[in-house]
Amino acid sequence: MYLTDAPIDFAALLAAARPADGGVCTFLGVVRNHHLGLPTERIAYEAYGPMAEAQIRKILDGLAREWPDAQVQVRHRVGVLEIGDVAVAIVASAPHRAEAFAACRAAIDRIKETVPIWKREFHPDGTSDWVDPTAGSPPG
Amino acid sequence: MYLTDAPIDFAALLAAARPADGGVCTFLGVVRNHHLGLPTERIAYEAYGPMAEAQIRKILDGLAREWPDAQVQVRHRVGVLEIGDVAVAIVASAPHRAEAFAACRAAIDRIKETVPIWKREFHPDGTSDWVDPTAGSPPG
Amino acid sequence: HPSPLTKARLPPMRIRLLYFATFKDVAGRDSEERQVAGGAKVSDLWRDLTREMPGLLKTGSMPPAAVNREYTGPETVLADGDEVAFLPPVAGG
Amino acid sequence: HPSPLTKARLPPMRIRLLYFATFKDVAGRDSEERQVAGGAKVSDLWRDLTREMPGLLKTGSMPPAAVNREYTGPETVLADGDEVAFLPPVAGG
User: Fold this and answer.
1) pLDDT surpasses 90 at B62
2) Local confidence band at B136 (pLDDT 50, 70, 90 cut-offs)
3) Could you say which residues from 20 to 79 on chain B have a Cβ atom under 8 Å away from some Cβ of chain D?
4) Which residues in chain D are closer than 8 Å to B115, comparing Cβ atoms?
5) How many CB atoms lie within 10 A of CB A38?
């Protein structure tokens, strides 16, 4: 299960690095207080759960083929998150740092491109919007 | 102070991300159980302390010029470390992930290239070697 | 001689349609059971839906579609019992 | 007429020399006070050291040097009170 409605236990993900792994690259996607110039108060994440799980599984399978020495873990929150909350955590460990960085970057890029998860941003004025990354500046 | 002889408080580094930061890329260099085909039991890190502090400061100043939106933090252990111990931690946070990844990767690359820190690997058979990254396979 | 097995001769099918995010707002529901013509493709379903709910078109051309939780193309022929979703631009991470 | 101010006329200087890692093993000490000729360059110091301790040469040509905690080149002229170190290949991280 890659999706969770509870806070992500990042320390537990880190602890899974293997004794042969010398490099651990991680990415945390954090709810930030602005988007496209508008202030953000909180974000509600919605997922097509079973498909999102299957897509993440496929992404991880692809990473394992491309970087066989890397071990990659993913957790993604769903539900309502506040500023500073971790929405997604990637932990990529490998014997050497080049693979760890490459696998981590590819993981977050592909997750953002293809995993059916959406987010509705709530603004301080009470309005809200579904975020459309294809419409504006690059997402964080 | 970027060097420490106490375990690195990674959670404290993470907590320093700013509310405007949506992406946090981190790198952990972990003591692994092998190097160039030989088993490793532990590693002693030695630094030219004052120069290492100054070099890391310079690297961070350079990163701040190249990626002004990124905030980068560094901690490096000195002393004797066991397998699985974190030797170096980099935390790079930025509004968007591209800067966070780029600054984090540049930070660890430059630290490994120019900061006067050395490591002596102890093998299970009682022998030890100073690691020379210019002599063999790429380091982790 | 026997007539060819045409699209019109296939029995109608029932699919389960899911709505997410902005499409859920437009549809006012998150899922429905729906009857479609035998042999209907994903693109036929999208055409029918946008006639009923022009608001779906705000994302422009046909969005990515999933059948049984896998991405698929507009030419995919639907089968009885399929779970179908059209996906607004994803924004995970 | 006055003779030119040559290297030989400069007074000798005292520097502090630091040894690290494999160089510390070769030297058998981690630091020393050392007298060098007035006007001596970093490369002169390295030449003298390797004559005394050929084991330093296992890293090949002159390694990176630091004067007063900053990287510097072989042509840098030393000054009285300088802190000098030749640095074996670094291996942090």
Assistant:
1) yes
2) low
3) 29, 45-48, 50-52, 54, 76
4) 90, 92
5) 12
Distance CA B83, CA B87 (A): 10
Instruction: Tell me the two tokens of residue D37.
Output: 């000729």
pTM, two decimals, is 0.91
Specify the pLDDT at position D41: 98
Maximum C-alpha span of chain B: 51
Cα A11 from Cα C78, distance rounded (Å): 44
What is the number of CB-based contacts under 8 A between chain A and chain C?
Answer: 75
Residues of C in contact with A29 (CB under 8 A): 93
Is B127 in contact with B98 (CB distance < 8 Å)?
Answer: no
Tell me the count of A-B CB pairs closer than 8 A: 110
A12 touches B at CB < 8 Å: no
The pLDDT score that the predictor gives to residue D6 is: 52
Q: Is C91's CB within 8 Å of A130's CB? A: yes
Confidence of residue C8 (pLDDT cuts 50, 70, 90): low
Q: Which one of C59, C90, C93 has the shortest CB-CB distance to A116? A: C90
Between C63 and B38, the more confident residue is C63
Name the residue in chain A with its Cα closest to that of B24: A28
* Per-residue pLDDT reduced to its tens digit, C18-52: 999 999 999 999 999 999 999 999 999 999 999 99
Nearest to D87 among B116, B133, B135 (CB): B116
Chain B residue with the nearest C-alpha to that of A103: B101
Distances (CA, A) of D3 to A125, C65, D12: 84, 91, 19
pLDDT > 90: what percent of chain B? 84
> What span, in angstroms and rounded, lies between the C-alpha atoms of D63 and A137?
47
Q: Supply the DSSP string of chain A, one letter for each residue.
A: --EESS---HHHHHTT--TT--EEEEEEEE--SEETTEE--EEEEEE-HHHHHHHHHHHHHHHHHH-TT-EEEEEEE-EEEETT-EEEEEEEEESSHHHHHHHHHHHHHHHHHHS-EEEEEE-TTS-EEE--TTTSSPP-
pLDDT tens per residue, range A82-102: 999 999 999 999 999 999 999
pLDDT at C62: 95
Which residues on chain B are in Cβ contact (under 8 Å) with A33?
A: 19-20
Mean pLDDT over residues B33-61, rounded? 95
- So what's the pLDDT on residue A139? 45
Chains C and D lie in contact, requiring 3 or more CB pairs less than 8 Å apart: no
